[in-house]
# Entry
Amino acid sequence: MLTDAQVRKAEKKDRPYKLADSGGLYLHVAPTGRRTWRMKFQFEGKEKLLTFGPYPEVSISAARAKRDEARQQLRDRNDPSGARKRAQEAKEAERRAIAEQATFESVARTWHALQAPRWAPVHANDVITSLVRDVFPDIGGKPIRSLDTPTILATLRKVEDRGSIETAKRLRQRISGVFAYAISEGIATADPAAVAVKALKPLPKAKKQPSITDPAEAREVLIAAEASGASPVTKLASRLLALTAVRPAVVRGVSWDEFEGIDWTGEVYGPFLPLWRVPSSRMKLVLDKKDEQNFDHLVPLPWQAVDVLRAVRRLTGRGKLVFPGQRHAHRPLSENAIGYLYNRVGFHGRHVPHGWRASFSTTMKARARKQKRFEDLETIELMLAHEPENKVAAAYDRHQHMERRRELAQEWADLLMEGMVPANDLLEGPRR
# Structure
């Protein structure tokens, strides 16, 4: 070990040299006579050098204290030179720079990719489509940190100005979701869309879907539609929709494998309990229920509905879909086909495809009250696939009131189809 006298008397030479102390500490003497305390060490297989300062400003005891501190850092598996800390600081600075330049669109697309597996495919597509159409053109290219509430609100106002009040509200929620993700990742520090919620226009009062609720008058819709020049597939889809009171999208997308207990030949005699099992994945459910068979919707079929299916099977039975579109057999009937048909035959603003649900509900509930069969009111709600108050009981009893549901389905069909021609009579025009 060096003494203070040795350090003090160290003289300059033509070449730099060093005087070793201990523990890797040594005194470096330059040709100029400058004396500096240094320490060699190894970290992660690499040789490194520390400089503690010049002598006599840094005494021999102070240099040894610094050496001991450095050795303790090495025992703690830390780099005493601070290289790791500087690397982390550089990485953090880079992250901040990236965050400051991250555009709203880039962050939104990352957020969407993370959320999409939790959503139904249709909803996931709707979310990204709405952002691409209404948000990205305005703010997509701007750094997300630069966006404020007035800027967000200006974008939403454009959507409101075209009359899409509900769409503007949904967009605000989606923008807010993007900011929540950005905050959690350190890309943003606040959610300017959250404040905008109170500045948006209120939703107008919801309008009921136009529907004719009297069975005799509702029958006129079918009569007019079936007397038109529409394709047989559209006419038969319309009739099945009216008979079952399911949602239009359920009829449009139905495949042949959803039906059970049907004699397709019409030549075998009972007992048959024809049933339409609509998979939970096609129902209006939250995503976490869509894979559960407990939430399949069971539709007991009256004989008139079976009559429709037997007829349309002659046209489309070779394919997967019961009601394919006219241009592509692998795609379902257009979502507007039945609605446009009703408009063309004089029922615009009076009855829409979704209106059959109200027709069924109003008629059958009125009959239940008149007959004092109040338990039928709950059964009718089940037939409409409305979620019951006792959700636990419903989850464990998918066949709840099935016998009565079958009776009510037949009663409705008999009322609606009185005097109507057989489904086979609608098979005019080219076959598939």
